[in-house]
Amino acid sequence: MLVLLVYLSGEGNGFLGRVEIEELGKAYHCPVRAKERLALVEDCGKDFVWRLAYAKLAGKIISEGNLGEIEVLMADPYFKEDHTGFAVNVWKLNTEVDSSELKKKFGDLISGKPNLSNPREIFDLFVKEKRIWITRRIWENDPKDFAGRHPQRKPVFHPTSLKPKIARWLINLSGLKPGQSLLDPFCGVGGILVEAGLLGIKSTGVELDKRWAEGARRNLEYYGIENARIINGDFFKWENGQYDAIVTDLPYGRSSKMRGEMLNFYGQAFEKFAEHSNKAVIMGPMDLEATLKRCGWNVKRKLSLPVHKSLKRWVHICLR
Ligand SMILES: C[S@@+](CC[C@H](N)C(=O)[O-])C[C@H]1O[C@@H](n2cnc3c(N)ncnc32)[C@H](O)[C@@H]1O
Questions:
Q1: If 167 and its partner were Cys, which of 96, 162, 174, 297 is the partner (CB 3.0–4.6 Å)?
Q2: Which CATH code fits 144-319?
Q3: Alpha helices per DSSP H over 128-283
């Protein structure tokens, strides 16, 4: 059985990555065991690790056991095959192990010459306390990929536009797969729609403000996304369509005095969401569980997310 080890990003000691991989694991019917920054994924992990936002890399587990028995672990015939052109990295988790010594030992026990500048295959050794996992890398997150879609790099910038990593994360929490459909009823300049499009998810965005609706169209076009459409109009007056999930970042009131007004607005929005889908991932400026419940939504999971130092957002994964 193929078991992958995924090294999650450090935010919240892996919290964002753990939630993401657990929700995707459920969607792909694939067992996931995640603790701190490590996640083990059985069988079908290859189907979805490539789309993770809060993960650094993933590898196939070749061998695992006690660090003190590395000679025994590497007596496996796999390591006697010629691995010329390999490189090795050590990832230390709660351990004092000497990385250079461990790399040297690995190099002595594997057949073939290393090539650090242009490796043909990369082995990642994860050491946690006294345990070691020897993995062969199958995927790594390219930070330049997300950086290239930073809101300020897009043709049209919106002041509350989501960073692509967060947008991708929200979509992943919905468990939507390529070919399924997403609705963002408050799409701004399309931060969520761009990420959905890149994952092969069909999306529809509704935006009240003509400037932002036009901006969303331009941003989608810039990234070559064709499976998305933008409606310029008021979501509350819009009646079309059923979607596999709603994924959205709600409009925010400009001051705390507007809280009551905003809760009323959100309540109306949540009732209308129910006309279009049975699943929703909703990001908002406050805990909205009570309002969601009143509107018939069952909040499966609620998370709070630090956006920056003084700003927090709540994310609600909801079903009907
Ligand atoms: C928080 S922003 C969304 C930002 C978006 N996620 C992005 O990454 O660009 C919320 C958007 O909802 C829009 N909006 C507010 N009321 C609306 C309504 N009734 N119908 C449609 N859009 C609305 C606002 O114009 C604003 O652009």
A1: 162
A2: 3.40.50.150
A3: 143-147, 164-174, 191-198, 210-222, 259-276
Quote the tokens at residue 193. Answer: 């729609």
Residues, the chain, total?
320
Instruction: Please report the pLDDT score of residue 44 as a whole number.
Output: 82
Is 23 a pocket residue for ligand 1 (Cβ < 6 Å)? no
Both tokens of residue 24?
Answer: 């995707």
The three-state secondary structure class of 256 is helix
Cα separation of 213 and 231, whole Å?
A: 7
* 205 closest CA partner among 227, 178, 186, 226: 186
Give CA–CA dist 129/283, Å, rounded. Answer: 37
CA angle 172, 143, 120 (to 5 degrees): 105
Position in ligand 1 atom list of the atom nearest CA 185: 21
For residue 14, how far is its CA from the centre of ligand 1 (angstroms)? 30
According to the model, what pLDDT value does residue 195 have?
Answer: 98
Domain ranges of the chain: 3-140, 144-319
Q: pLDDT value at position 43?
A: 76
Q: What is the pLDDT of residue 254?
A: 65
Report whether 41 contacts 17 (CB < 8 A): no
Contacts of 40 (CB under 8 A, 6+ apart): 3, 4, 5, 6, 32, 33, 34, 61
pLDDT for position 311: 80
Angle (CA) 278 212 193, round 5°: 40
Mutation probe of ligand 1 site: the residue of 165, 186, 313 with most atoms within 8 A of C-beta: 186
Enumerate residue ranges in the chain where pLDDT < 50.
none
The answer to whether 35 touches 7, Cβ cutoff 8 Å, is no
CA distances 288 to 225, 228, 272, 283, 294, Å, are 32, 28, 15, 9, 10
Residue 59, pLDDT score: 97
Tokens representing 72?
A: 């025994």
Decide yes or no: CATH 1.10.287.130 for domain 3-140.
no
The answer to whether the pTM exceeds 0.85 is yes
Q: What is the pLDDT of residue 159?
A: 87
